[in-house]
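re: ur question from yesterday

yeah so i grabbed the chain u mentioned. its 612 aa long if i counted rite. heres the sequnce exactly as i have it in my notes:
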Amino acid sequence: MSVYRQPVPPRRTGLRLVGRWLLFLLIAVVMLAIASVGGIYLFVHETVAGTHTNDPRLRRTQPYLDKIPPPGHAAVAMLIGYDRRPNEANNVPSRSDTIMLLRADPQLHAISMLSFPRDMLVTIHCPGQPPYQDKINAAYASCGPKGTLQTVKALTGIPINYLITVNFTSFKEIVDQLGGVWVDVDHRYLNTNDGRTYDTYATINLWPGYQRLKGWQALDYVRFRHTDSDLLRVVRQQQFVRALKEQIHSSFSIFDVPRIMGSIARNVDAIPDLSVTKVLSYARFIYELPPGHFFQAKINGLNGYSYLTTNESDIRQAVQDFSNPAVDAPRDATNVAFGGKPRVPKPEETTITVLNGNGVEHSASDAAYLLTQKGYKIVRPPSTQTSNAPNFNYQESIAYWNPRVKRSKAAARRVSQLFAPAVAKKLPNTLTQATNGAMLTVIVGHTFHGTIGNPPPEVTLTRQPPAVVYNPSASLPLVKSLRRKVPFRLEYPTKIEQSSIPDPDVPVRNYPLDKKHEAVRLTYRTGSRGYWGIEMMDWNGAPVLSERNFRRFIGKREFDLYYSGAKLHMVVLRENGATYWVVNTLDDQLSNDTMLAIARGLRPLKGKVGRA
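ran it thru and got these structure tokens back, copy pasting raw so excuse formatting
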């Protein structure tokens, strides 16, 4: 038998107790995080299953969709927003007020939109019926979503992989579940529809300025066309989609996912059925989209009132803009506006060596010939090299840029679009000798079948004299009237667009953004009845401000530039603890040089700051 003494336990110091509680707390937090992530995953899984439609009309439409492209390739979805008015009988067909194509391109890291005005005259294609001429929204009323799908595919030739439908009442619920969406309203929208006159347009009551729109307000805004046109309604709808993306990127967290996804599951139908992995991959793609990579294609040349018509060439151009978004257009436009050159060289400035990477005879020479037809200059490999790539296992074509040649990266991205599906990459050292000094080296892969596409449309970028007049007296009295009513220093434009006047309806407005911040809006009307404005606020975290393209100095002041394609849509000045925005019209009527001139002419209002 042994006798021994147990060591005396150490005294529990305060430090030991704190350490133990911290350890328990850490374990609890980790377990909570694991449970939360698992719960969110299960919720997302159930939510995605909830979007799987039971609508027989959508199920019958699925055979008309194009095959879903493999990962890494562009996909196109059609969004149909439809409406049934409260006073209509159940046997009255619904109308498709919104028809929009959305294209997600992971290679260009871009999303492009193309909308179709509902009054546009087209050939309606309903399966099982002879084609006929009518407004494009008649396709949905006549034969449902498959009619709209077939009509748009016949009109554009664009393969469509997904179909999404949403009722406008459901649209309102989704916006409300998001807590509203921050949108820049360009002018006063008012239609009371009070019965004193025969007026079938929907009611609306919105004031100008950057503001959070709740469900019915957002619905009124995207559907409005009372005093302008169906064309501007299309622009408002695309603007709303961009605003939604801005808000998701800047304001939402993982804890918002259940609420948002639940609303979508209840109100949105989609085909084909989406897996959780696919949904999460698209969500990540949208969240990580670079600023300025949201492009709005537009159908130009539309004429008429009740029926809108245009030429086939305008349709083809819109399809080209949609399918080949000019991702370098904002940078090129900025370079030109500040006295530089476009970043993307013209075809005649671009030299290319073409190599065969698929083993098919004459592939390299055929691709080289096609490139010469587009204006590119072909450089043959050195006499000691063949026209073959290191192997014939290239599935996709690759456009390599030469890091020793200026502007070659932008050129490679442009050329890769001709060979889509293709990618642009930096030239590896193993291919240096084969390039023979060319700006680009293109290796044609197995996806090349003897044809190439059209390049993105050429954007004419030339400096123009700004269309402005020096007229500080037009704005100074408006701003002075609010000097002692806001808690930050106001500024006023010394120059305005030459055909503009302060909007007679609401030239200036002071309003609260929320409980902490205030804003002031100056609104101007152009001679063509477009509306542009100057927004001032003491809130630097507005969602729209998260999408800046570039920052440039003009003199000693620094300006942030926000583009829509090659058009400068917004110029923001940050000083005095506030932000001052020059906002273009909805359809960007003001030239880039005009926008910069107005922003450069902003001047602080002298005197004391603060409420009287």
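noticed a couple things. DSSP finds 15 helices and 29 strands in the chain. also Residues 12-50, 85-92 have pLDDT under 50 and may be disordered.
anyway ttyl
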